[in-house]
Design brief:
Radius of gyration: 26 Å
Number of strands: 2
Helix content: over 70%
Strand content: under 5%
Number of helices: 6
Distance between the termini: 23 Å
Largest sheet: 2 strands, antiparallel
Low-confidence stretches: 62-72, 182-190
Shape: elongated
Mean pLDDT: 75
Order of helices and strands: HHEEHHHH
Strand order of the largest sheet: 1-2
């Protein structure tokens, strides 16, 4: 009788959590995903602005009057760097979109999982078989969807900050330093630079292209680790535990 009462209580709690609009665990997980999306968006804007600056620099023509008249584009050598920056920006945009989808879908997925958990607990409460196979597996599956995914993101927030914050800030400083000749990545595009500024940027980028691309890839790696790799590692551990008890 006591066991059935506890199961009924847990069933009500799970159903209440499924119907609760302001679930604190889900809210914290969505907040973390939104923070990652915001950071990725800032990186994307920086990359696209730099990309636009480089594309404009390549179109600058310089008149030639020695031997024959004509024009040349001396900054066309920036095209490989420009293409690489554009590709990295596309990847960052993909991370940003995926993170936004996770933040939006987390609430419904968690609600469905908790709903399945409440159904399993209700069957457990009313069934005379007690720990029947289907309710047991359904309970662990629902609990996994309703709790494991949000908890993985919640736990990822402090871990990701401790593990990647230094790498992220260090590489962002490198990007700022390399683009500082035109006012830094935050100031790119604020004023129309002249040919001297374009040449200065070209010289700086050409001499430190490897360092710039490495820093951009590191920033991209931080975003991927924060929203995909680390939560997946935590979810994988929770999945192993849930699967073990579901089979037990």
């Amino acid at each position: 009788m006591i066991r059935r009462g506890l199961l009924a209580l847990f069933c009500v709690l799970a159903l209440t959590a499924a119907l609760l609009r302001d679930n604190p665990v889900v809210g914290a997980a969505q907040g973390y995903a939104a923070d990652v999306a915001t950071t990725a968006a800032a990186s994307y804007v920086t990359l696209r602005t730099l990309n636009a600056f480089l594309s404009t620099a390549q179109e600058i023509e310089v008149g030639l009057s020695f031997i024959a008249s004509g024009s040349a584009r001396p900054l066309k050598v920036l095209e490989p760097i420009d293409d690489t920056v554009e590709r990295i920006a596309g990847l960052v945009f993909g991370v940003m979109v995926a993170t936004g989808v996770i933040a939006v879908a987390l609430g419904p997925v968690s609600a469905i999982g908790l709903g399945l958990l409440s159904v399993a607990l209700a069957v457990w409460t009313l069934s005379k078989r007690g720990h029947a196979g289907l309710p047991r597996r359904l309970a662990w599956y629902g609990g996994f969807l309703g709790l494991a995914l949000p908890l993985a993101l919640v736990v990822s927030e402090p871990l990701a900050g401790a593990l990647t914050e230094g790498v992220y800030l260090r590489n962002m400083e490198v990007i700022e330093e390399i683009t500082a000749h035109v006012g830094g990545s935050e100031a790119l595009g604020e004023e129309e630079p002249g040919l001297t500024e374009y040449r200065q940027l070209a010289s700086n980028l050409w001499s430190r292209a490897d360092e710039l691309i490495g820093a951009l890839l590191a920033v991209l790696g931080v975003h991927i680790f924060r929203i995909f790799l680390l939560p997946l590692l935590l979810v994988g551990g929770l999945f192993v535990v849930a699967r073990y008890y579901a089979r037990g």
